[in-house]
Write a structure and sequence with these properties.
Blueprint: E1 4-10, H1 13-26, E2 30-37, E3 41-48, H2 50-64, E4 68-74, H3 81-86, E5 98-104, H4 107-120, E6 124-130, E7 138-144, H5 146-161, E8 166-173, H6 177-183
Helix pairs in contact: 1-2, 4-5
Amino acid sequence: MEPAIGVLELNSIVQGIHTADQMCKVADVQLIDAFPVCPGKYMILVTGDVGAVKKAVNTGDTEAKDFYVDSLIIPNIHSDIIPAILGATKVDTKSINAVGALECFSIASCIVAADTAAKEASVKLIELRLAKGLGGKSFFTRTGEIADVKAAIVAARQTVAEKGNFLNSIIIPSPNPQIWEKLF
């Protein structure tokens, strides 16, 4: 069974730092990341078993007080998601047949979309970039066989579009090797 992931968004950076500390104190979770997001928000990502993540996020919801914006819990997150957030994904560039990418207006929507894509088709997550240096937007890139990449991106796009957070997506069959160098 895969771990859960929890995301909490606040509109105060200092309250976000306090909230992240409290979330880690009340539950046996791993803090994936906690960081300021443009324009002046704070994002907290934790992982662990479902019960611990729920306890941490529920505590975070309370600790955020009037600065709460949104939260999300995804049980059984795909095993590619957390390494991609941490920048620890290994991809054999010789086996790339296609690359797909999807861009979202929110962190939570992008995580959900990347998880949906991974569960939809046999694709490898290259990167999941969350808001840092992106004006609050997020994106992910995937690789695999062209049909799998298309299926994954279509499923992810539908998931994000339902909440109005879809920005753009692309599918590149047989990407030029120079592009590979910039993606990895």
